Amino acid sequence: MALRVSSISTLAIVPNFLRSRAGARASSLWAVSHNTAPKIVAHRGFSGSYPELTQRAFEKALELPIHGIECDVRLTRDGRVVVFHDPTLIRTAGVRGRIDFNDYNDLRELNVGTKEDPQRIMLLEELLELMQDYPDKHIYIETKHPTPHGPEVDEQTFRMLRYARLDDSPNIHLASFSHRAVRYFTDMAPELETFYLFRLREMKWNKKNRMFSRPYGVGPALQHLQLRTELLGYRGLKTYTWTVNTPRGMQWCADKGVDVMATDLPDLALEIFGNHTAVVSD
């Protein structure tokens, strides 16, 4: 079906008063050693200042001296891998409908940017092409589950990476809340770094933090990680946490030795950690 173009703004997520208060507090924090600062990843691109998961958000994030970017991917009805977080379109596109119930030709007509700066839903292949202009940057790709397409979103993501000859790239990282997805990527692309993302509600049914896959790292949300600090470096694995948007949270990550930190505010993280500490090679 044809979908109308939305003119709503999808800008930020982070209230202006919070940004100003955070910036003011950043200057009062003590210096973070370059040996302890986590790698900075722009969550959904530079989503604190630009519409999330758009080309503009990714371009602005990639211009910063940070480790890399994070994105979510879903599958359309006709099997295209799109860069999109929600299963539904209403929040960022302003229309009713689901990603997986529409073909990409219809979805590409939507505006997920602003009225002044329209942006369309990106394909993963387009984002990977953009990354070629930034060979030092890393990308963390989260495949979204559950989905009516089942594991096909993982399979199509892998096929795209293999076609682009990126299935063994040290700059590509894969993440999922699905152990099945992590197992698939571990089997098909063992040289790619994978992260299992812990849900906060797992604290109720998975009290012993059992693992049903073999990821390279664990990815609990910051709140989860602070409540269950045993997940820091769990079983000797890397620690990736999200979404860290306050100076206090960023300082906590540095103090605790978090390896990778996803934030909507990479500019704030740079202010706290210092530009010279932001880019860390693997």
From TrEMBL:
Source superkingdom: Bacteria
Pfam families per record: GDPD (PF03009)
Family matches, as Gene3D superfamilies: Phosphatidylinositol (PI) phosphodiesterase
InterPro entries: GP_PDE_dom, PLC-like_Pdiesterase_TIM-brl
Protein name: Glycerophosphodiester phosphodiesterase
Higher taxonomy: Bacteria, Bacillati, Actinomycetota, Actinomycetes, Mycobacteriales
Alphabetical list of PANTHER family matching this protein: GLYCEROPHOSPHODIESTER PHOSPHODIESTERASE, CYTOPLASMIC, GLYCEROPHOSPHORYL DIESTER PHOSPHODIESTERASE
Residues covered by the GP-PDE domain: 38-273
